[in-house]
Amino acid sequence: MKILVVNGPNLNMLGRREKGIYGDVTLDSICEQMRALADGRCELEFFQSNHEGDIIDMIHRTDASGIIINAGAYTHTSIAIRDALLSVSLPIVEVHLSNVYARESFRHKSYISDIAKGVIAGFGAKSYLLALDWFLGELA
Ligand code: DQA
């Protein structure tokens, strides 16, 4: 089983960006923590892009069995990423490091939540681990 982990714009800046909100953790460290949790029980493919079309192309070409996605700000704006996710009919878990519902109102709208199996927000790097844990239980 393979899980595709998609990270959208500005998530490559974790560890440097808005540390008061996102903390010190880097994207590399999150990937490492996920690999350690998977411990060979599933294959993980990591993809990060700051470009909407590249994220859509990656979703179209994936051969994974499920997708963990933090679309960053595109979460709140991108009907195109929503449509790409719908086009591949895979189980999706939406993740956010921060609790978007405790932040600005423009972050309360997600174009992904209602087509996802579930949404995990507010637990920092652990949001990704909780999402992976669900996949490990569900698809093993
Ligand atoms: C984020 C929340 C988004 O609102 C923001 O644009 C991000 C990160 C999060 O992980 O908390 O880039 O997706």
TrEMBL record:
User: Which E.C. number(s) belong to this protein?
Assistant: 4.2.1.10
Q: What does the record give as the function of this protein?
A: Catalyzes a trans-dehydration via an enolate intermediate.
Enumerate the residues marked as the site Transition state stabilizer.
R17
Q: Which NCBIfam families match?
A: aroQ, PRK05395.1-2, PRK05395.1-3, PRK05395.1-4
- Which keywords fit this entry according to its UniProt record? Amino-acid biosynthesis, Aromatic amino acid biosynthesis, Lyase
Subunit info here reads:
Homododecamer.
- Single annotated GO MF: 3-dehydroquinate dehydratase activity
Where are the active-site residues found? Y22, H96
Q: Which reaction does it catalyse?
A: 3-dehydroquinate = 3-dehydroshikimate + H2O
Annotated protein name in UniProt: 3-dehydroquinate dehydratase
Q: Which family does it belong to?
A: Belongs to the type-II 3-dehydroquinase family.
Record has Lyase as a keyword: yes
The family database entries (InterPro entries) matched by this protein are listed as:
DHquinase_II, DHquinase_II_CS, DHquinase_II_sf
Q: Which residues bind substrate?
A: N70, H76, D83, L97, S98, R107
> What GO biological process terms are annotated to this protein in UniProt?
amino acid biosynthetic process; aromatic amino acid family biosynthetic process; chorismate biosynthetic process; quinate catabolic process
